[in-house]
């Protein structure tokens, strides 16, 4: 296990993002803040801490792993096919959640939020599974990384 298995900086390759509304931008900021506050990120064969760049290339998500100085260490690529439905479902439930926050009762908001968390949790488990043997991450780190992967898919 790396001596310091954590992410100290994360960037998104924004070339694929056309626009982000205020709600999405807030989700991105929160995910990055929470990720940098506490995470477990241990790429196989490398000692941390790490800088990470997330990007989409050739229908895959690429996770560029760098050392603390920014020198490239590895790139892990995951096919997006397994993530298409969770991303689509997460976008749909987030839209419902943001609408509910503006116009619904607290009970309705809570119901939508529970569904949103369930979809997010399932996607995080899928991410942990897909990274197994390449990068060891904990559940909370996977949740935050999934949020950032979703941001990359906004067209």
UniProtKB/TrEMBL annotation:
Pfam families membership: UPF0262
Domain of life: Bacteria
Family under the similarity heading: Belongs to the UPF0262 family.
NCBIfam families reported for this sequence: PRK02853.1
Name listed for the protein in its UniProt record: UPF0262 protein AVDCRST_MAG39-2347
Organism annotation: uncultured Sphingomonadaceae bacterium
